[in-house]
Amino acid sequence: MNIETMLEREDVRQLVHAFTLLDGEREIETFLVDLLTPREFCDFAQRLHVARCLDQGESYLEVQAQTGASSTTVSRVSKALNGEYGGYRQVLIKQGDGE
What we know:
The chain is an all-alpha fold. The protein has 2 domains: 1-35, no CATH class; 37-99. Helix content is 75%, strand content 0%. The longest helix has 18 residues, at 38-55. GO terms for molecular function: DNA-binding transcription factor activity; sequence-specific DNA binding.
């Protein structure tokens, strides 16, 4: 399934909309705890850490060593960080970490 098709699914639209209904970090945190397994939660956090490191100009090897992420994860995050959707970039900018 391609990304555009996925984003058009009603269940995906409802999930995205659910985040807009939450007020503040605590509500988002509790929703994520219910939604994700502990491993998934940590995987998502690791990916954001990888994006931050890559954005700061660290090499793939440095990022792997610092975050514990696999080379595949670092590569995928790099592709997304510099890709057409820009989700990582938007978050890094809003957190004051991005260019």
